[in-house]
Design a protein that fits this description.
There is one protein chain. The chain is α/β, with parallel strands linked by helices. Helix content is 51%, strand content 10%. It is built from 22 helices and 14 strands. It has helices at 3-8, 12-21, 26-44, 51-73, 79-94, 97-107, 144-158, 180-186, 203-212, 225-232, 236-250, 265-268, 271-281, 306-323, 371-376, 381-385, 388-402, 417-420, 422-432, 439-445, 448-474, 493-501, and strands spanning 114-117, 162-165, 174-175, 178-179, 191-196, 215-221, 255-260, 286-290, 327-330, 349-352, 357-359, 366-367, 369-370, 435-436. The strands form 3 sheets. Strands 9-8-7-6-5-2-1-10-11-13 form a 10-stranded mixed beta sheet. Strands 3-4 form a two-stranded antiparallel ribbon. Helix 2 (12-21) runs antiparallel to helix 3, helix 9 crosses helix 11 and helix 17 (388-402) packs antiparallel against helix 19 (422-432). The protein starts with a helix and ends with a helix.
Length: 505
């Protein structure tokens, strides 16, 4: 059988297995997947999304493939972890559509795709502007049995085999003599991504992570040494570099998690930053979280400005388009996710914190339910999905564009209810009686100036990005082939759009 016959007879899962296992066939497999996914996302476009939205989704998937290829070619993923990735991430996450469809038919609704869970508020650092207000003295945490039940239910009820763990510092969580790695080992068919400050990833922890093979750390950096230590504490960056080395040594794939602030946005979106962390350090993916004014001493003064956010949009999309780096920016990558994915949207997620409070996402600190109370009253995760707060947010998502045809879809460069449409989210929170999860959230809920400023922020960014949406999404100006770079691959396109918008902020 020749190569063409092998490729044509292979399913998407089979092609991904070839990509991982066969170095000789890796490059032709990537090219074939690029062709097949262009046909699926862009040419078929079964959900009638704006064509450029489908190009965005395609670009992200291809960047993920290229990132995996780089990691495999450079020997950054051990043989054992490669096999575990096939068993968990490939089979349980990327090619799990049949199982999810079966769950949807049984439930009568399309379920969320995953959960974000913070099992502990405890942290050894004290970062400026921490969304969770974490510190080294708190005892708040989920018990092992409850966390185990949550993960089991999402697997059984939703067909979900992807779990995101946040904090606090997740590697400090322990209960009943067990830690997070024990939990990941227990749920061996689930793939875990863990946001961590990296300071607990010593050689022994890295060895255990390689042994289970279904957990990838996303380690927090704020730029280079100076910027990271300024926010996280002196000497933290050196400890992070040691964590990277420990993971590379045993072949555990890792990424980075970046908080973009008004005083570091240009650094974390620079080519020098990408060169260092992706080429030199070996990170395979990155998540950028633009600072959201919640949590410890929340202030809009730390937020990137609308104009800075627009500049970041240009830099990050060029990384994706030209360098094929898998880097997603919350919130600048909203077009690739068809808008907001919070509040239990189909394929999206809910957030569960250390007290069991369940909120739409980690950046909306208002709870619709508490998991302990739901379980006490005989409910489960599906009980929570149907809570009024989540239903109302999903209704807003649908009206904004998620269930609309392409020509009626609103600007997904402004995808976030709390950041980009704050007045709408505030109205929903108050009408549904959602409860603040802490004193900082309660203070924000009662702060009229805070609400006014955030509402204006969203309007300003919409005015800046609406010309992009109108020209490149509504106007159906999609490039003609997958090999052709679109407008965002060219330096300076943001300046041209901004000049055309004739907006003074």
């Amino acid at each position: 059988m020749n190569l063409d016959s092998i490729f044509q007879s292979s399913s998407f899962r089979g092609l991904l297995q070839l990509l991982i296992r066969n170095k000789t066939l890796r490059q032709p497999v990537v090219r074939l997947i690029e062709k097949k996914e262009w046909e699926f996302f862009v040419e078929k476009n079964e959900l009638n999304r704006p064509p450029q939205v489908q190009r965005d989704k395609y670009d992200y998937l291809i960047a993920l493939l290229h990132s995996a290829q780089r990691g495999l070619d450079r020997g950054l993923i051990s043989k054992h972890v490669q096999e575990r990735m096939i068993e968990t991430f490939v089979s349980g996450v990327l090619t799990n559509g049949k199982r999810i469809k079966e769950c949807a038919e049984r439930l009568g609704f399309d379920p969320p795709g995953f959960l974000v869970i913070s099992p502990t508020k405890l942290c050894n650092l004290h970062c400026t502007g921490c969304y969770a207000c974490s510190d080294s003295t708190t005892a708040e945490k989920l018990d092992f049995a409850t966390l185990d039940r949550i993960i089991t239910e999402k697997e059984e009820l939703w067909g979900s085999y992807f779990t995101v763990i946040s904090g606090g510092e997740p590697f400090m969580w322990k209960d009943d003599g067990k830690d997070l790695i024990d939990m990941a080992a227990k749920h061996s068919n689930d793939y875990f991504m863990v946001y961590t400050n990296g300071t607990f990833i010593n050689k022994e922890t890295a060895r255990r992570l390689e042994e289970i093979g279904n957990l990838s750390p996303a380690i927090s950096v704020e730029g280079f040494e100076e910027e990271t230590d300024r926010r996280r504490g002196k000497g933290v960056h050196k400890r992070i570099l040691q964590a990277f080395e420990n993971l590379r040594e045993v072949g555990v794939p890792f990424g980075i998690s970046i908080t973009a602030l008004r005083n570091n946005w240009d650094i974390v979106s620079s080519d020098e930053f990408a060169d260092y962390y992706f080429d030199e350090i070996g990170a395979l993916y990155g998540w950028i979280f633009q600072y959201m004014p919640i949590g410890r001493k929340h202030t809009l003064d730390l937020m990137v400005t609308p104009e800075q956010r627009l500049e970041m949009l240009e830099h990050i999309w060029r990384w994706l388009q030209v360098r094929r780096l898998f880097v997603a920016d919350f919130w600048n990558s909203g077009t690739a996710s068809s808008g907001c994915i919070a509040a239990g949207r189909p394929g999206g997620y809910l957030y569960v914190d250390w007290d069991g409070d369940v909120t739409p996402c980690a950046f909306v600190p208002y709870a619709a339910a508490n998991i302990y109370e739901v379980y006490k009253n005989g409910g489960n995760l599906n009980t929570i999905v149907h809570k009024a707060l989540f239903r109302r947010i999903r209704q807003w998502q649908n009206e904004y564009g998620y269930t609309k045809p392409a020509e009626q879809t609103s600007n997904w460069f402004c995808p976030c209810p709390i950041r980009d449409h704050h007045d709408r989210l505030l109205k929903i929170v108050r009408e549904c009686g959602a409860l603040p999860i802490d004193s900082e959230a309660k203070e924000a809920l009662e702060d009229a100036e805070y609400h006014s400023d955030l509402t204006q922020y969203g309007r300003d960014f919409d005015r800046l990005t609406d010309p992009i949406w109108e020209e490149h999404y509504r106007a159906d100006s999609l490039v003609s082939s997958s090999s052709e770079k679109d407008y965002r691959a060219q330096p300076g396109w943001v300046t041209k759009i901004r000049d055309k918008a004739e907006v003074l902020l």
